[in-house]
């Protein structure tokens, strides 16, 4: 046993890590697809609720959130090749702030990556029930079916997983590009995009104010703008499966971010401006892209168009299951979670136990809410409260990752950095500021969000209690833990 900073490390032999091996496969384009695919469902739906505050409010909110994510992704582009471990956010915070900082950051990301696929598969089930006419009470069967299919695809092997990721991401982007070109001849921006009045009513002839609700409207739109970029930060979780993370990780995450920025602002410009749609209607729509397609091509091909819309959801569902598996795997390999969760498939070298365990937990939560609250209310809780819990976990982890970047620049200035963020410390500070403002507004402006935060707080309390009593005495010297300890020793000697 080794002692450090109030934690104890258990000595393990080489066989421990042989049972937890991963296989390197991913190049730049695989990493790009992983980042874009995780986010792309947010361009199909979710972002549009911010339009209820006016198109101008949503535009400014999207710009602010894009700045936050630029600061985050450039910080990650520097940290991930410098610390190329599967732990990603947890490993950055572990090296910068010690075991407790790493654990809290990992716990926040765990909330995001376990619950986000659950919310996405709920929306997939809603679409599929509508397309195939299955009774709504059988929706849980769609959830189980999609989890089985996409966990299986991720378990089969990293090669197949990344190939599927690339294909579904390209198909989802192709759907968006098709909409852009289809919409261009049918837009009337002044009449439809600007049809929200100062008191929130619809203006049939358009010509509404740029900021119908003033600066309050911008703040209210921030949480919805997050959906245009949420989950791009998962890319560093593939570090130990990247062929050359020091070269490819920065290229993949930066290319992914700029792809998403282009797509985000194209959909924000064209979807509300399409004739017959408009910002007012999209502000409460569950399927804004589908509404746009229907306005252009008519309702006769609605089911085909709905299948098109499902592609975006599937792309994000598949890629975030990948991320969830790696996130649980890394924390359990280091002993923060139960170590048996990090065992990988003997032949496939994929973290199948972590993916199955995380998926079963998500399904259990969904089933409990569905049967406790009933079909209608249970669906609202899954689509609302769980969604808010995932966003809270994400925002907290962004704050911690940006703080880790600043502390690593200060405390470990001499570690090898194959890439350096052009935004540096100011970019990371902006990320922290915007994440904190977004969290504050969600806490004070959305009662449904407060309920989600309560459950996240309860989960955190249980996690902290477990770590304080048991977990911190059973840590294991995984690669990221060993790196952090070696750097601490170097600092002492210098």
TrEMBL record:
Recorded hits in InterPro entries, A to Z, give: AA/rel_permease1, APC_superfamily
Signal peptide residues are none
One example GO MF annotation: transmembrane transporter activity
The topology of this chain with respect to the membrane is: Multi-pass membrane protein
Provide the transmembrane region boundaries: 29-49, 55-77, 113-134, 140-157, 164-184, 214-232, 253-270, 301-323, 353-373, 379-400, 421-443, 449-469
Q: Which UniProt keywords apply?
A: Cell membrane, Membrane, Transmembrane, Transmembrane helix
Q: Answer yes or no on keyword Transmembrane.
A: yes
Location comes to: Cell membrane
- A GO cellular-component term linked to this record: plasma membrane
Answer yes or no on keyword Transmembrane helix: yes
Q: Which PANTHER family match?
A: AMINO ACID TRANSPORTER-RELATED, MEMBRANE PROTEIN
Q: Mind telling me what this protein is named?
A: Amino acid permease
């Amino acid at each position: 046993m080794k002692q450090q900073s109030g934690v104890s490390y258990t000595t393990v032999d080489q066989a421990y890590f042989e049972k937890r091996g991963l296989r390197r496969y991913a190049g730049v384009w695989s990493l790009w697809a992983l980042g874009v695919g995780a986010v792309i469902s947010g361009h199909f739906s979710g972002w549009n609720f911010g339009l209820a505050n006016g198109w101008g409010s949503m535009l400014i909110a999207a710009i602010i959130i894009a700045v936050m994510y630029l600061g985050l992704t450039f910080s990650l582009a520097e940290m991930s090749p410098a610390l190329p471990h599967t732990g990603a956010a947890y490993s950055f915070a572990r090296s910068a702030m010690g075991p407790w900082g790493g654990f809290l950051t990992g716990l926040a990301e765990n909330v995001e990556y376990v619950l986000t696929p659950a919310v996405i598969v709920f929306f997939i089930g809603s679409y599929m029930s509508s397309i195939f006419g299955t009774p709504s009470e059988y929706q849980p069967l769609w959830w189980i079916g999609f989890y089985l299919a996409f966990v299986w695809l991720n378990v089969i092997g990293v090669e197949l997983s990344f190939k599927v990721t690339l294909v579904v991401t390209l198909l989802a982007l192709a759907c968006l590009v098709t909409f852009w070109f289809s919409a261009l001849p049918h837009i009337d921006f002044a009449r439809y995009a600007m049809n929200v009045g100062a008191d929130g009513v619809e203006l049939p002839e358009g010509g509404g104010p740029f900021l119908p609700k003033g600066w309050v409207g911008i703040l209210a739109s921030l949480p919805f703008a997050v959906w245009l970029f949420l989950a791009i930060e998962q890319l560093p979780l593939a570090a130990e499966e990247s062929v050359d993370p020091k070269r490819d990780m920065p290229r993949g995450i930066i290319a992914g971010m700029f792809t998403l920025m282009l797509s985000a602002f194209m959909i924000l410009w064209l979807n509300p401006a399409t004739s017959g749609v408009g910002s007012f209607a999209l502000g409460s729509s569950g399927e804004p892209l589908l509404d746009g397609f229907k306005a252009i091509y008519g309702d006769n091909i609605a089911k085909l168009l709905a299948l098109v819309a499902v592609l975006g959801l599937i792309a994000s569902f598949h890629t975030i299951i990948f991320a969830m598996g790696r996130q649980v795997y890394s924390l359990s390999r280091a002993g923060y979670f139960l170590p048996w969760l990090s065992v990988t498939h003997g032949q496939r070298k994929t973290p199948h136990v972590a993916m199955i365990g995380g998926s079963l937990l998500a399904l259990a939560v969904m089933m409990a809410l569905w049967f406790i609250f009933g079909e209608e209310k249970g669906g609202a809780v899954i689509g609302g409260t769980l969604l808010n819990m995932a966003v809270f976990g994400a925002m907290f982890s962004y704050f911690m990752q940006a703080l880790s970047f600043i502390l690593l620049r200060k405390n470990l200035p001499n570690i090898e950095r194959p890439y350096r963020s052009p935004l540096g410390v100011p970019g990371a500070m902006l990320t922290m500021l915007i994440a904190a403002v977004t969290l504050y507004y969600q806490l004070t402006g959305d009662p449904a969000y407060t309920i989600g935060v309560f459950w996240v707080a309860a989960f955190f309390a249980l996690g902290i209690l477990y770590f304080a009593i048991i977990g911190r005495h059973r840590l294991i010297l995984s690669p990221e833990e060993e790196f952090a300890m070696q750097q601490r020793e170097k600092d002492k000697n210098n």
